[in-house]
């Protein structure tokens, strides 16, 4: 299923999330552990679940590769059927403060206690490339700070050890300190900031194209 940027607002996101969560038997009080080939996609889903109101969401450090390398049990074939949840058990979204629209993000630019943080590759941040073949505008939101990412729009190796596990919170904090991204300040960022102990976090949904047009 391909989503157009205009359809990926928070209301549409919640309709999709509510249906998917119920289908997989997930309630607000279900502990969820996410993994993938890398942590990139799993972190995005974790943010959506937290926004929806799932209280306990975790990531498997190192993802599938770490599990496979440890030679832990695996299964093949059709997965076991999951009993759908009759009810999420709480209003959705449970944590609406975790998502900002473009006007709210704009407001962060004028606050001394806040940072609008770009999690994009350096070539994207500096305007060398948009990062995507279908996005022509290049550049960055004026005033944004670089939170690092990876070599291109599909990688996040700045946050990873060579084995694919996440770098320590101390390493990441030191990396961010160079761009004045500090604990205690509010910011529009990604889930990794939460894991590193920076508390007041929000995500600005939408892609680079939407931000280039609207901010």
TrEMBL record:
EC top class, as a word: transferase
InterPro entries in UniProt: Rhodanese-like_dom, Rhodanese-like_dom_sf, TST/MPST-like
Organism domain of life: Bacteria
UniProt-listed Enzyme Commission number(s): 2.8.1.1
SUPFAM superfamilies: Rhodanese/Cell cycle control phosphatase (SSF52821)
Keywords for the protein's UniProt record, in alphabetical order: Repeat, Transferase
GO molecular function, one term: thiosulfate-cyanide sulfurtransferase activity
UniProt keyword Transferase, yes or no: yes
Boundaries of every Rhodanese domain copy: 21-76
Name used for this protein in its record: Thiosulfate sulfurtransferase YnjE
């Amino acid at each position: 299923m391909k989503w157009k940027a205009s359809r990926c607002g928070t209301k549409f996101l919640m309709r999709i999330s509510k249906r998917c969560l119920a289908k997989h038997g997930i309630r607000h009080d279900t502990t969820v552990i996410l993994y993938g080939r890398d942590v990139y996609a799993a972190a995005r889903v974790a943010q959506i679940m937290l926004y929806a109101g799932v209280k306990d969401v975790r990531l498997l450090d190192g993802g599938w590769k770490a599990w496979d390398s440890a030679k832990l049990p695996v299964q093949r074939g059709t997965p076991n059927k999951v009993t759908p949840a009759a009810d999420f058990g709480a209003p959705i979204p449970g944590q609406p403060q975790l998502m900002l629209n473009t006007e709210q993000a704009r407001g962060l630019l004028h606050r001394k206690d806040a940072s609008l943080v770009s999690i994009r590759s350096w070539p994207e941040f500096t305007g060398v490339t948009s990062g995507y073949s279908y996005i022509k505008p290049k550049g960055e939101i004026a005033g944004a700070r670089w939170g690092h990412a990876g070599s291109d729009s599909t990688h996040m190796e700045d946050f990873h050890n060579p084995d694919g596990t996440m770098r320590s919170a101390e390493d990441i904090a030191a990396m961010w300190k160079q761009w004045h991204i500090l604990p205690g300040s509010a910011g529009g960022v990604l889930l990794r900031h939460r894991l590193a102990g920076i508390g007041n976090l929000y995500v600005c949904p939408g892609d680079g194209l939407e931000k280039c047009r609207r901010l």
